[in-house]
C-alpha cells in the first residue's frame, strides 16, 4: 500500500510516530503547548486531498474524525482545529489540534505562531502510550512488521 511513501524530513524532525492507521501515519507534534496530531496519508506524492481517490478521501475523513475524538476525550479542549495547509511541507498531512481558551496562542492559529516547548522524555513516552491506546480503540493501529 505505501510503496514509495517517505515521510518529509521536517515532519520526522518535528513529530513522534504513534503508528499507522489503514491510510495514514499518525504523528504527535513535539510541542507540549498544544495537543497536536498529524495524519499523513501513506501515498507517494500525495499533496492535495481532492487528488486522493474517493475511497482514500473518505478514509482520511474517518481517520481525522477519529483523531479528533481521541483528543477531545483525552484533552477536553474547548475546540478542535483541523486543517491541511501544506505551505511549508507540501506532503499531504492533516493537523488535528486540541485548543483551549487558555492556551498561549488562543484565539489565533498555532501554525507559525512561534510558540514551542518540547515534551520531556518521560512525558512524551507516557503521552504516546495513552494516545496509542486511545487511537487503537478508535481504529486499530497496524502492527509494525517484525
UniProtKB/TrEMBL annotation:
Pfam family, one: HIT
Top-rank taxon: Bacteria
Keywords: Hydrolase
Domain HIT: 37-106
SUPFAM superfamilies membership: HIT-like
GO molecular function annotations of the record: hydrolase activity
Protein name stated in the entry: Diadenosine tetraphosphate hydrolase
